[in-house]
Predict the structure.
Amino acid sequence: MLKEKIKRLSAEYAAEFLGIRQHLHAHPELSYKEFETSKFVQAKLTSWGIPFKVMAETGVVAVIEGNNPGKRSIALRGDMDALPILEENDVHYKSKNAGVMHACGHDVHTTCLLGAAKILNQLKSEWQGTVKLVFQPGEEKNPGGASLMIRDGVLENPSIHGIIALHVHPGLEVGKLSFRKGRVMASADEIYITIKSKGGHAAQPHLTADTILIASQLIVSLQQVISRNNSPFSPSVLSICSFQGGNTTNVIPSEVKLMGTFRAMDEAWRFKAHDLIRKQTKGLVEAMGAEADVHIDVGYPTVDNNPALTGAAWALADEFMGDGNVLETELRMGAEDFGYYTQNVPGCFFRLGVRNEELGIVHNVHTPKFNIDERAIQTGVGIMAWLGAMMEGF
């Protein structure tokens, strides 16, 4: 039985896959600089006899054909980049690249995809269709590696009927998975605002425009613009996360810079909010005697899990994992460039539990102490191989 064979191989190769994860964790690379990671992935695929091509400079795309390869084509995606974070974990596989860390679990994602590749290739006479393996760069940084991979043709030759990805979930116990149909993650846009005046002496504010005061007023005002114009039933958040201006006690600076992020679950409201942010910023700043430059870097779209594809994957996960081990995941205002894929083909983005409170593995992603219960790797490898072998097209 195919399911039992996948489980057996996932356990048999567990030590090998653990070594892969620890190697990747110790050698993280930032977005669009995953050169050594890409070479490592290519070397593994070569050693297993799996053909591949390089795309978007550091991306790797491999194809495994089972029986009747034209029956359907499913893509499995794993991202490879790390974050500019100094790791604080005291483990033997701690990052060797100072200030760079796999703090979002992409080392786990890449490992699970490599593991699935090895198993699917070994069992390719026992499943039907084609599986495309997408090792993607640059998930953590605009414009998003997914957009570059799509630009370079990752969804073609062969064209795919659906795409699936997993992501570590530090709030979900190891040994469990979670799925959600429909919209599951928010869009994400970057906000850059510069407020300018001639500057002046702090004792003579009437002779200039106080850029610090204006910026402070603007931050509060923008929060009200978002909360008063959006439906309370549509999640949305604006966070100004950087306020840069001035360097002494008695000088009103000539320039203040604000940076932040805007998240939304509704694409129409998303772009309406952009216009409101621009209008409010220009109007308020000019009314207070200064000038404003507003730049909104349009980022990742919402992640929309195709209900039919996700429902089928969920049912297969239930079969593979057993009762009580597959839950419904929550809506999240975080963003993922997987949304670009779901704009083009049916997609399913699900969660892999990595939490273990007894071992102190409780820290969130994007923090210096994030880590996983490594038993999650065997689960992730197995479920990705199972879904790759069993999913039908949509």
About this structure: The chain has two domains: 2-185+302-390, 187-297. The mean pLDDT is 97. Residues 2-185+302-390 form a domain with the Aminopeptidase fold (CATH 3.40.630.10).
